[in-house]
Specification:
The protein is α+β, with helices and mostly antiparallel strands. The protein has helices at 49-58, 80-92, 104-116, 123-143, 155-169, 232-242, 305-314, and strands at residues 2-3, 23-27, 37-41, 203-204, 208-209, 214-219, 222-227, 251-255, 260-261, 271-276, 280-287, 294-302, 319-322, 328-329, 340-344. The chain has a five-stranded mixed beta sheet, with helices on one face. It is elongated, with a radius of gyration of 38 Å.
Length: 345
């Protein structure tokens, strides 16, 4: 590299005119196709400070200077103080959240209050952080029941919000406001969303709250809300009607803690799973009446004693007997699953 004049110190705070420009000669290796020497003359004039600042604000989109980058966004990492502030604000506004409506305006209020406390967090960032906290709470609760706080920093704070919401479900409201429903925690397969935990009263439409005591029952892919203000038989009929159970099969409800609850109006307001009695499956070998030769075998499932009696009457049997046995089976309770029987006339 050859310079046309001696190098001089550069003052970065002093604007230099065109007279300060220098010629530069660069020697480039050749492969036979390129000229042996490349003469490049460049005149560069520094820009005012204000114009440089404007270029920095433009970021990388111009592509002029890879060293000038746009200011980075607010870091997604939350410090403890702002996380606790978010949980506190969300807990204070808990009763105003309604999963059947848009909660956008509430998150905007939370974001504004966070800003007043010195934490610049948008409504979307607050919503995402809250949902992540709920996911962590669900994971800690399920992995280590009763001691989830050991694996989550804010476990107790979120648990307190749930506990307060649970208590309010049992408080008698002041007339004319009817009782409101708390459906408690619901963990969906799609993840632990904010709509997955109902902290506020569930409502239908604009201002039509549920009245009375209501539980949530799930069977397969279907979920129904069942009122339990009536008698046990009324609750049972309501469940059968809701899931279109046209059978005498026995069923029961099991809560999220795997506790089977009796059907009555005092049962806890929780999410339940509906279980149907699988019945008692047996095989009955049918014979030709004249030759006493087995014709075919049919499979039967009995759910109640009445089902068993009706089958005997329809087949003109007095009882069933094991193929290789001698004891007559008069009651359904004496039948053995997947055993082959024959009819006794």
């Amino acid at each position: 590299m050859y310079l046309s004049e001696k190098p001089r110190p550069i003052d970065l705070y002093k604007e230099e005119g065109p007279s300060m420009a220098r010629d530069m000669i660069i020697e480039v290796p050749t492969n036979g196709d390129l000229p042996r020497h490349l003469h490049h003359q460049q005149q560069q004039q520094p820009q005012p400070l204000q114009q440089q600042q404007q270029q920095m604000m433009l970021g990388e989109s111009s592509g002029d200077d890879p060293e000038i980058k746009a200011p980075k966004k607010r870091a997604e990492t939350w410090v403890q103080d702002e996380t606790r502030s978010l949980i506190g604000l969300r807990g204070e506004m808990d009763g105003r959240f309604n999963t059947s409506k848009s909660n956008k305006h509430l998150w905007e209020q939370i974001s504004a209050k966070m800003r007043d406390k010195g934490f610049d967090r948008s409504p979307t960032m607050c919503t995402d952080k809250w949902r992540n906290l709920l996911k962590e709470f669900k994971k800690a609760k399920h992995q280590d029941r009763g001691s989830g706080s050991a694996k989550m920093s804010y476990y107790k704070e979120i648990e307190e919000i749930l506990r307060e919401r649970t208590k309010s479900a049992y408080k008698t409201p002041t007339p004319p406001s009817p009782p409101k429903l708390d459906s408690f925690m619901h963990f969906s397969d799609k993840g632990f969303e904010d709509t997955g935990i109902t902290f506020g009263p569930l409502e239908v439409g604009d201002c039509q709250p549920y009245g009375g005591r209501v539980i949530t029952v799930k069977y397969g892919d279907y979920t129904r809300r069942i009122g339990i203000d009536g008698t046990t038989e009324a609750i049972r009929d309501a469940i059968k009607s809701a899931f279109r159970l046209r059978t005498k099969r026995a069923f029961w409800l099991e809560d999220e803690d795997h506790v089977v609850r009796s059907l009555d109006r005092e049962m806890p307001l929780r999410n339940y799973t509906l279980h149907l009695d699988e019945g008692l499956a047996v095989k009955v070998c049918l014979y030709d009446e004249s030759d006493h030769i087995p014709v075919h075998t049919e499979e039967k499932t009995f759910y109640t004693e009445d089902d068993y009696r009706e089958y005997l009457v329809r087949r003109s049997f007095t009882s069933l007997r094991e193929i290789d046995g001698y004891r007559n089976i008069d009651n359904m309770d004496d039948l053995q699953t997947n055993t082959i029987y024959r009819g006794v006339s």
